Amino acid sequence: MSEQLDELDRRILRALQENNRLSFAELAEKVASSAASCMRRVNRLRSAGVILADISLINPKAIGKTLTVIVNVELDRERLDLVDEFKRAMRAAPEVNQCYMVTGSADFVLMVTVEDVEAFDTFVKQRLYTNANVRKFQSMITLDRVKFEPRVKI
User: Can you list the positions of beta strands (E) in the chain?
Assistant: First the structure.
């Protein structure tokens, strides 16, 4: 769909990434268009899957999630059914807020956000040690979130 996005679509997307709570009238003013046009375009962008969700970003520490751990996971076997099973398990794990299948020495990289080291230990025991297809994993506890930017450059 990116080839079908015109400059107005791109302005709308940039504005919504900054603040998705704008009314259509406010959005129209920001992007130099009409409210009706903005409404049609936003609905089209949602239907086409360009806009995935409208969410509020929460500060994890404000809700007691003070530990973020990056986990590199290496699978034992890379059969499609076992890879799919691991993907399903990570999607179902509430502690995992990001999961990427990657190239290189690891097969997956996870971002795990939990309350503390004890909660991470529980996650490891319940989600990784019990998975017979996990060969090994390496965890890195984050000390400081230097940059967290969920926006995509448009």
Answer: 67-75, 96-101, 108-114, 134-141
User: pLDDT tens digits, residue range 55-88?
Assistant: 999 999 999 999 999 999 999 988 899 999 999 9
CA distance 88 to 93: 9
- Tell me the CB-side half-sphere exposure of residue 136, using CA atoms within 13 A: 3
Backbone angles phi, psi at 143, to 5 degrees: -95, -35
Tokens found for residue 40:
């049609």
| C-alpha angle 70-16-154 in degrees, rounded to nearest 5 | 70
Which CATH number does 2-47 carry?
1.10.10.10
Any idea which residue has 């059914």 for tokens? Answer: 81
Supply the pTM of this predicted model: 0.87
What architecture (CATH level 2) is domain 60-141? Answer: 2-Layer Sandwich (3.30)
